[in-house]
Design a protein that fits this description.
The chain has 304 residues and is of the alpha/beta class. It has 9 helices and 10 strands. The strands form 2 sheets. It has a 5-stranded mixed sheet. A 5-stranded mixed sheet has the order 9-8-7-6-10, with helices on one face. The relative contact order is 0.09. Bound molecules: nicotinamide-adenine-dinucleotide. The site of nicotinamide-adenine-dinucleotide has 21 residues, from helix 7 and strand 7.
Length: 304
């Protein structure tokens, strides 16, 4: 089942439980607007490269739409649709005055230089600038994008609409970003984990963790867990995976990835097959990369 089919199914189940009228159910499932644009940029070597960018604006009944922009080879319209819809439910459940949106470009950011990423982000912004905005739709960082990406969007958008720092969240502090934003999602993951552990009479200190993804969310979650005395026994990212049954020295791993850009050759742990991360022995598995990774196989393994 693809991401959109799964999200629609979950929504229908919730709608039945809430006793929602079937006409309303249909109207809530269909997105407000789907945008698909061609983004062609000159590469550093002078050749041209074309990418497809998406923005799905799902619902604005409760306020401006809001959601991340993802740069990843697997970005496709179904996935963006599903993630936009989930943003609508997320802001509504948290009772925030926002709607839901999501966007992305089908590309591998690791294959692009900084200047190519900047050109791609600016072209994408040129194509969608009149459909986003402070009171319409506010993008944010997601997988493969960061504060720098938001700064480029802000700058490009401002060329058309005047200085508009509020057009994106997750921008650098110097451009009006919020203190604590970079750590916020990883910290939220830790708060949720602490609440779950408390239900079992446990705490972070007596718990072993495995994390898939060591980007913004995963690295902050790992850092905070380590600071709180938890044992991170395995970590993976797109470059591989490392394990240490006695607990990985997370500050040392962060320094290593900052310098090398990869988990490979880290001295304080053994390298392992990244496919084994999801079934590695631990008390808590935290998926901080792509969605849809918790399947029957992983759940059956955890139940053993
Ligand atoms: N950044 C945020 O504030 C935020 C907010 C809400 C949700 N999320 C979600 O959290 C997840 C991670 O986002 P992020 O901002 O940390 O992205 P990121 O790009 O900073 O990091 C993603 C990490 O996942 C790894 N990865 C990618 N493909 C992988 C694969 N096939 N196997 C193993 N690792 C893989 C990357 O190497 C990287 O370490 C995404 O699903 C995103 O939608 C992020």
């Amino acid at each position: 089942m693809n991401a959109l089919a799964a999200t629609n199914r979950n929504f229908r189940l919730a709608a039945r439980l809430l006793g929602l009228d079937s006409k309303l159910e249909k109207s809530l499932l269909i997105p407000f607007r789907e945008i698909k644009v061609e983004c062609t940029i000159p590469k550093d070597d002078g050749s041209l490269a074309s990418y497809v960018g998406f923005r799905v604006q799902h619902d604005n009944a409760r306020g401006p739409m809001k959601g991340g922009i993802r740069y990843h080879p697997e970005v496709d319209p179904d996935e963006v649709n599903a993630l936009a819809q989930l943003m609508t439910w997320k802001t509504a459940v948290a009772d925030l005055p926002y709607g839901g949106a999501k966007g992305g470009i089908g590309c591998n950011p690791r294959d692009l230089s900084i200047s190519e990423l900047e050109r791609l982000t600016r072209v994408f912004t040129q194509k969608i600038h009149d459909l986003i905005g402070i009171h319409r739709d506010v993008p944010a960082p997601d997988m493969g994008t960061n504060a720098q990406t938001m700064a480029w969007i802000l700058d490009e958008y401002s060329k058309f609409h005047g200085h508009s720092p509020a057009v994106v969240t997750g921008k650098p502090i110097d451009l009006g970003g919020s203190l604590g934003r970079e750590a916020a999602t990883g910290l939220g993951v830790v708060f949720a984990t602490e609440a779950l552990l408390a239900e079992y009479g446990k705490s972070i200190t007596d718990t072993k963790f495995a994390l898939q993804g060591f980007g913004n969310v995963g690295s902050w979650a790992a850092k905070i867990i380590h600071e709180k005395g938890g044992k991170v026994v395995a970590v993976s990212d797109i470059t591989g995976a490392v394990k240490n049954p006695n607990g990985i020295d997370i500050p040392a791993l962060l320094k290593h990835t900052e310098i090398t850009g990869t988990l490979k050759d880290f001295q304080g742990a053994n390298f392992m097959d990244p496919n084994d991360l999801l079934v590695h022995e631990c008390d808590v598995l935290i998926p901080c990369a792509l969605g849809g990774v918790l399947n029957k196989y992983v759940v059956c393994f955890a139940a053993k």
